[in-house]
Each structure stands twice: as structure tokens, then as C-alpha cells.
Amino acid sequence: MKVMNIVHDSVVDGEGLRTVIFFAGCPHFCKGCHNPKSWNIENGVDMSADEILCEIMNNELTDVTFSGGEPFYQAEEVKTLAKRVKEAGKNLWIYTGYTIEKIYESSNEHMVQLLSYADVLVDGPFVEKEKDLSLPFRGSCNQRIIRLS
């Protein structure tokens, strides 16, 4: 998997303390994106599921958030990590520029499987004209927080 960064103890990427995995690669190119370097998958560093899980488990008090870039851009690989995160008993939030409807309608079975491991999905692209910094855990008012389990 291509990873841009791993941040520990975040309080802005989901409820409670979270370890956030920022994946590289994004097809959305949202105007005003807070992380445009993440659009290019080649800007990421190769990490295995074992390496990422080890980093997560080094901070046992945190739950986990997948962000980006776009986690669903690497869905085939990321779903394996998501499964292991859930097996470790962690709560998992996933941020995506796709809507949940687009994921379910997708012909990409890996995207649907990745979604099945999420406890919470924050969906929709960042829309600069709908930017609202007062919203918890999202940047624009079109984005939704969807509790899945």
C-alpha cells in the first residue's frame, strides 16, 4: 500500500483518540483539498499491512481512521488491513470522496468489501463553496457522517 503519513492521537479525524492512516492516490482532485500532494499515488511510501498494523498497535489506546488521498483508491490492499484492524478490536472510520451510494453501485467488489469493515463512513467530496469549519469531523456541509454498525 502507498501511505503518505501516519498520525497518532488525532482528535479531529473521528471520535476519541485516533491513529490516522493517510493513503496516497486520489481520483477526486477536490478544489481546496487540504492534502493535494496525496493525489499522486507515487508520493506515498510502500508499506505492508503488517508494518501499518504494527504502527497502529504501538498506540493501543487509539482507534483508527483511514483517510487520504482516497482509501478506496487502493481498496484491494486496504481491505486486508481493515479486516485486521477490526480483528484487533479497533473502531474504524473511513473518509472518502465517494458517496456511500457510489460505493455500493460500484462494480469494484473490493470497494464494497472495504466498506463492510467500517464502523463510520464520512462520505462525499470536499466542496470548497460549502466549506464549514464548525462542522465536527468534516470540512464541507455536503459530507455525511454515516454510522454503519
TrEMBL record:
Q: Name one GO molecular function term.
A: metal ion binding
Reaction catalysis annotation: glycyl-[protein] + reduced [flavodoxin] + S-adenosyl-L-methionine = glycin-2-yl radical-[protein] + semiquinone [flavodoxin] + 5'-deoxyadenosine + L-methionine + H(+)
| Highest taxon of source | Bacteria
Cofactor(s) the record lists: [4Fe-4S] cluster
Pfam families the record matches: Fer4_12 (PF13353)
Q: Which PROSITE patterns match?
A: RADICAL_ACTIVATING
**Swiss-Prot/TrEMBL keywords:** 4Fe-4S, Iron, Iron-sulfur, Metal-binding, Oxidoreductase, S-adenosyl-L-methionine
> Sorted alphabetically, which InterPro entries does this protein's record hold?
Aldolase_TIM, NrdG, Organic_radical-activating, Radical_activat_CS, rSAM, rSAM_sf
Its Enzyme Commission number(s) read 1.97.1.-
Broadest EC class assigned to this enzyme: oxidoreductase
Q: Which PANTHER family match?
A: ANAEROBIC RIBONUCLEOSIDE-TRIPHOSPHATE REDUCTASE-ACTIVATING PROTEIN, PYRUVATE FORMATE-LYASE-ACTIVATING ENZYME
Instruction: State the family named in the UniProt similarity comment for this chain.
Output: Belongs to the organic radical-activating enzymes family.
- Protein function: Activation of anaerobic ribonucleoside-triphosphate reductase under anaerobic conditions by generation of an organic free radical, using S-adenosylmethionine and reduced flavodoxin as cosubstrates to produce 5'-deoxy-adenosine.
Q: What is this protein called?
A: Anaerobic ribonucleoside-triphosphate reductase-activating protein
Q: Name the source organism.
A: Priestia taiwanensis
